[in-house]
Fold:
Amino acid sequence: MQGILYEEPTIWQFMLVTVIMGGWTAWRTGKSCADNWSSYATLVAYTLLLGVAIRFIHHALFEGSMLTGRYYVVDTVILLLFATGGYRFYRTKQMTEKYYWLYEKASPFSWKAK
Structure:
């Protein structure tokens, strides 16, 4: 998988920067967008910018390439998964707490009408 999904010599560098650091930041970005009642398009725009920041961290700390499209896409897709998860989790919480007479949780990531 090295060279296809990530360019670092070990998967642990990729996991540290993209999955742990980037994933946590993307989750919090999703929470922030949900808390501010922002649209999903806003979340996608923020995640695209976050992908650039994660590529910079790979470049600055581990001498990875900064402007490689393939690795940017891989990082951004992973970040978008975390951001969408955070967005849906907190939007569900928001809808079921603020409109408790209308909605109930169907799962941690969705709600349904009562």
